[in-house]
Amino acid sequence: MRNIWQKENVFKAWVFAILALCSLFSSQALASKMASQLQEAIYLFEMKGEVDESIRLLEKISRQGDADDKESAFFYLGKIYDLANNKAQANHFYSRSQAFTKNTSKSYWLASRDAATSFAPVRLLQKTIPLRSPIRKFFEGKKANILFENGHIAKIESGMVIEIASKLNENDHLLHIDSEGMWYQNSTRDSVFYRPHNSPNQETPYNIKDLSQFTAANGYAIAITDKGFYILDRKGTITKGSVDYTSCQIQNDLFISDNFIVNCPDNALHFISANSAAEAFIIAQYDIIQQTFVLKDKIYLISGNELFCYTLQNPKTPLWKAAVGNIETLQAFEKNIVTLEASGKVTLYDQQTGNINASIRVNASNVYQLAQGTLGLFSNEGSVITVDTLLRPLWNFNFAKSPMTAPIVKRRFIYIPYEDKKIYAIDSHYYGQRPLYTSKLAAQAILQAKQDHWENIPPLLDTIIKNEPGNAEAHFLKALNLEKQEAPEKNRQRAWAEAVRLSVGGSPQIASTILSHYSDVIGASFASPLNISPKTMYPQFLGAKKNLYTVDPATEQLICINAENGEQRWSKYIGKIGNAPVIQSDENAIVISTGYQMNVYDMNKDAFNKPLQLPGKAFNFTMTSDYIYASTWNGFLLKISRANNSIVWSRKVYSMPFHVVKLPKFLQLCNLDGALMRLNDDNGSTQEKSSNRVPVNITAMEGIDSTLVLVSNTNKLFLQNTKKKDYSPTQVLMEYPIISMQVFRDQNEDKIIISLSDQSILLYSNIGTPLWKYQGKKSIFSKPFIYDGKAWIDQGNEIIALSIKTGKVVKTFNTPGGAGTPFILNHTLFSASPKRVLYAFPL
């Protein structure tokens, strides 16, 4: 072995390099069981040049030592062979060292040497583990226990699913499982049992029934029933608590200083001693506590759009707090707390100070730790962008689906469970420093396509998709190949839908290429990614002039989009608007409700007016050219001048929500109970003899010129000619509940178009004469957009236009992957897919 050391100067240079590395990574090595022998091996190599003896001693340590010993032994063996330019052996030992290290800096260094000693592309997806039975419940943690539908319980080890001794009966209900045992209820739910894994025949019963909440930690369990709560230990002892926590929520898997945590309606976390069942202390907030996370002696929580950090030493005053958006996940990462907002913004906060160390925005719906010192940002479409400790991208991959729970990180594999009876095992030591096998194959496939050798492409695509199920380039080439083959339209649409879905959130260059080809295939002006939260599945569009607008409730933003190319112009923060905000617009303004106030965005000024306070939460808005009428849930009506953004008059007209229609000479009102009323527009006073009643509940009301239409919960339309003094409406009965109703003007006649729950669309005259019926399908909101003598509506994978005159389909746009309710602006039809792709079709 010594004959490999020919040049003494090179040897000395590498010795200095090793000394530097020893200094960098020595703290862990010196704490190991065989530390003295490890130091001896290093001394033999560095100072005496006895390479063979050093290798022999390191190999012995790697066989007999503990985990720290093995890590260090493999590390130095890799370095010795690296110095000898034996790349294969060096790579082998570096990889084995990386399997044991818990040092982030060392992991990154080993990854760099792995790339330097091997140029082979990486197969990230190592294996697919099929499951015999679907997963009923997954229990996270080091042991990664799984309960299957057939009652079997297993753990994941060495790339296999290994069943453990315990097994539940079919009708038993598993409450909690950990490395020691499991808690469950019998089929009658009248008792709780604890069964240790090492003694499956030994069960400890607890006479507890009517269980509503349960969790366990550190050998104890807490159970909440309708009669109170109980602390259980594994020996069968039950301690009943004296406080009522039935309206509180146990914070599962959170346990600190021998205390369980419950989140209660008094906006406080209550800490309950597992030893005594007494309340130890509380952490109170002004707003509702939305999320909680415990790390060592610190409690992190989200409340009122702020992230708070408390310590056990001072639970009354936060150590620090920071303003945050709508937080989806909260967890630890390295020395930080990482948050994911609904907008896709990922932020690292220093655990001790709350300072922001890094922040990015990506298409992510979940955040999970992967390899040592890396964070996986997973999207709903299955893509994962993996970032380092400063949120810098390392690699990306696509599994085609989002995982059902957090990945399980082991030495060799990272296991990612999916609902469709399989688990993916990926390389646990990949840091993006070597190319991916699928990326190499995709480049080859693209080259074959450019050379027009399409006959060579299908085998490559099959291999790519097998190794990366969601590879967008492979699915794109598959769709293009089907187009060239003139395959059946259904097959082509399915392929394009998958390619477009998988392009979202991946490489912007790849997404741009796919969407550009896709828009040509479907005849669109463009197909563009829509920068909204994944939680906003079907955005509604508003617009005027050259701009489109949409409201993203999850991120609390008003977004302006260039209608000519689909690019986002800007986004403006509105405020906390909830999941179902009241929104209305015309060609000059957008009105949005936010709690007890209304915000008016003036399109001409490109700015929000000063928010106006309302006497209740908004129920709906009615807009005219000069005024906005706001009705509230508690029965107030306000008339607001658009010229100076001020309230003209306000009065309480009902004690419940109501609808408002502005007719030429008055305001027509109707509350949800069917009580009708007319008001003078000038001052809000009630007109004499204008009160009437419809003997049913009213769900909608619209009016135009002389026609007033009410929708009842009894599947009826009530049609009223407002020029008649007496109230004698025409009634039209429908077969199914009415989903939407619109009154519009067509060829100087009032028309009524409605959609029913069975997806049928019907047109009526203003006196209730049926004109035509069309049987629709798969529409999201079942509300047509009326434009140029046509009713445009989404129908699953297409958008159609129905002639107002005949009810026949006169135009169709294909939208593989689905579409939302259409909106028309500047003679262009816009619609967004559920996967946040904006279509624009020229009319």
Automatic annotation (TrEMBL):
Signal peptide stretch: 1-31
Species for this entry: Fibrobacter succinogenes (strain ATCC 19169 / S85)
SUPFAM superfamilies: Quinoprotein alcohol dehydrogenase-like (SSF50998)
Keywords, ordered alphabetically: Signal
Superkingdom of origin: Bacteria
Protein name: Conserved domain protein
